[in-house]
Design goal:
It is a single chain. This protein is α+β, with helices and mostly antiparallel strands. It has two domains: about 5-65 and about 200-235, no CATH class; about 70-195, no CATH class. Helix content is about 25%, strand content about 35%. It has two helices and 18 strands. The strands form seven sheets. Strands 5, 6, 9, 13 and 16 form a five-stranded antiparallel beta sheet that branches. Strands 10-11-12 form a three-stranded antiparallel beta sheet, with no helix packed on it. Strand 1 and strand 2 form a beta hairpin. Helix 1 packs antiparallel against helix 2.
């Protein structure tokens, strides 16, 4: 197999991976708090001896989480929270603490604020938030302070990854950061709102078409190379 075929196959593999990412973005257009992804490619260049030109290959080595603010939809829900600006909610899962922008919370049987999956929302000190059983007219301030009957009983923690490039999607709208998290600056909490997915449907569909056409072009080249090699073998076999 020659260098041109190797390069094409590497490109095809990268395009397939990018197509999977784009399809996943499109499938989550209506998912609350979803962050779209993009594929990060790196280029490998090898210099040959003599006058032969160098060989370049592109490989998809990672994914980039897009942090663009999604549109805010008003729900009127007491414990529906949205973040305006940078930052994430911190929730406790069986696998550890995770970041999320999906702010639909409800009190469970014990009064603990949890996600639909049962993950506990954590406060600014990293502890679960409990709503008093006699709480009436719960209000949430822009700084995340929760109060009922005029008395504060907790504060929603807003966090961000220490290294934004280290942010990785674990599943759905949950993210993890190996570099750790820190308090977010310049963010505000809005009560009665949820943040929509930040996927631009038109842009993603257009990107899908581009990737598909690029893949078809590479496949056409591979088919022609295969036929050329077969033709050479038939000629030499005579």
């Amino acid at each position: 197999m020659d260098n041109a075929t190797y390069t094409t196959l590497t490109r095809q593999s990268g395009l397939m991976r990018e197509m999977q990412v784009v399809a996943h973005n499109i499938a989550n257009i209506s998912t609350t708090g979803f962050r779209k992804e993009g594929v990060v490619f790196s280029e490998y260049i090898h210099r040959f001896d003599g006058q032969e030109p160098s060989l370049s290959m592109a490989t998809p080595n990672g994914r980039h989480i897009n942090g663009t603010q999604g549109a805010l939809s008003q729900t009127g829900g007491t414990f529906d929270l949205a973040i305006e600006g940078p930052g994430y909610f911190l929730v406790q899962t069986p696998q550890g603490e995770r970041l999320t922008r999906a702010g639909h919370f409800t009190p469970n049987a014990e009064g603990q604020l949890v996600t639909p999956d049962g993950h506990a929302l954590l406060d600014d000190g990293g502890a679960p938030i409990f709503v008093p059983p006699d709480a009436r007219q719960v209000a949430v301030g822009s700084d995340g302070t929760l109060s009922a009957n005029g008395l504060a009983f907790g504060q929603v923690g807003l966090y961000q990854p220490v290294d934004p490039l280290n942010l990785q999607r674990e599943v759905g709208t949950l993210f993890t950061s190996d570099a750790g998290v820190e308090p977010a600056e310049g963010a505000a909490v809005l009560q009665g709102y949820l943040e929509d997915s930040n996927v631009d449907a038109i842009a993603e569909v257009a990107r899908m078409i581009q990737v598909q056409r690029a893949y078809e072009l590479g496949q056409s080249f591979t088919d022609r190379e295969d036929e050329r090699i077969r033709s050479v073998l038939r000629t030499l076999g005579k």
